[in-house]
Amino acid sequence: RTVYVNGDYLPEDQARVSIFDRAFLMADGVYEVTSVLGGKLIDFDGHLKRLDRSLGELEIRNPLSADDWLAIHRELVTVNEITDGMIYLQVTRGAPGDRDFAWPDPETCPPTVVLFTQSKPGLAESPAAKVGMKVISIEDLRWGRRDIKTVQLLYPSMGKMMAKKAGCDDAWLVEDGFVTEGTSNNTYIVKGNSIITRELSHDILHGITRAAVLRFAREAQMEVIERPFTIAEAQDADEAFITSASAFVMPVVEIDGAVLGDGKPGKVAARMREIYLDEMR
Ligand code: PDD
């Protein structure tokens, strides 16, 4: 596999970054994940916009233009022959000589840029979408700026492991009694003709898939209500689902052991998945 590191396209085993890189020492960096379907980048502009926002919040300079980002993504899709899969990009504050809590002078410390691809043949035809996900709920113990897409992913990773140990697929994070989001996705419940999802704030990542799905839902005359909900309300809902760039729209059929409806993926989730995939690819 060919990867991109700071201007160079290299075989993955020749790619190098400094041990002083602040992402390695302090998780001082941000990332984006863009899906590829049939060789096409899905919602690429949305991901670039959010990258800009994450970098801006952390006062890291965006080292590349939108055209450059696009060219690198296209090149990696081509050289790695990605039909279905994803591209991961990471920008970090770079590698100053010494470890220091204070940020280095950006003039002397350029950001580190890394991109790689993962091939996932048949990504959109995921059998999981026909079965649905089982989730557990856990306390949300992440930091307070979840709107910035940082590489600080230890707690979400622990949450995923807790879910796996419980025989489930993912964990929904709960703060002050209300669901914030999943370990790596935004969360929704459906009641009648209404889709309910938590409103945007510093508490959740502003999902690129979320924005598209809510737009398509409104166009399909569904009511969209942006407000927090509890696990009890979700267990009592008609349906539930999640969205992310890599899972698109994925139904949830069980929450903390409580089966939703008849235990099969809901109609609204299936429809939103179909609309999303039709519109985006
Ligand atoms: N995760 N919330 C969290 C905490 C996330 O990590 C993600 C994405 C989302 C969904 O955002 P989007 O629709 O823009 O992908 C919500 C990516 C896919 C990941 O970490 O792999």
Describe the structure.
- α6 (208-219) packs across α8.
- The strands form 2 sheets. Strands 7, 8, 9, 10, 11, 12, 13, 14 and 15 form a 9-stranded mixed sheet that branches.
- The two termini are 24 Å apart.
- The protein has helices spanning 22-26, 44-57, 66-79, 128-131, 154-165, 208-219, 231-235, 267-280, and strands spanning 2-5, 8-11, 29-37, 40-41, 85-92, 112-119, 133-139, 170-175, 178-182, 186-191, 194-197, 223-226, 239-244, 248-255, 258-259.
- The chain is an alpha+beta fold.
- β7, α5 and β8 (170-175) form a beta-alpha-beta unit.
- It contains 8 helices and 15 strands.
- The chain folds into 2 domains: 2-122, D-amino Acid Aminotransferase, Chain A, domain 1, CATH 3.30.470.10; 128-280, D-amino Acid Aminotransferase, subunit A, domain 2 (D-amino Acid Aminotransferase, Chain A, domain 2).
- Residues 33, 181, 184-186, 205, 207-210, 243-246 line the site of N-(5'-phosphopyridoxyl)-D-alanine.
- Acts on leucine, isoleucine and valine.
Topology overview:
Elements: E1 2-5, E2 8-11, H1 22-26, E3 29-37, E4 40-41, H2 44-57, H3 66-79, E5 85-92, E6 112-119, H4 128-131, E7 133-139, H5 154-165, E8 170-175, E9 178-182, E10 186-191, E11 194-197, H6 208-219, E12 223-226, H7 231-235, E13 239-244, E14 248-255, E15 258-259, H8 267-280
Parallel strand pairs: 7-8, 7-14, 11-12
Antiparallel strand pairs: 1-2, 1-6, 3-4, 3-5, 5-6, 8-9, 10-11, 10-13, 13-14, 14-15
The structure holds N-(5'-phosphopyridoxyl)-D-alanine.
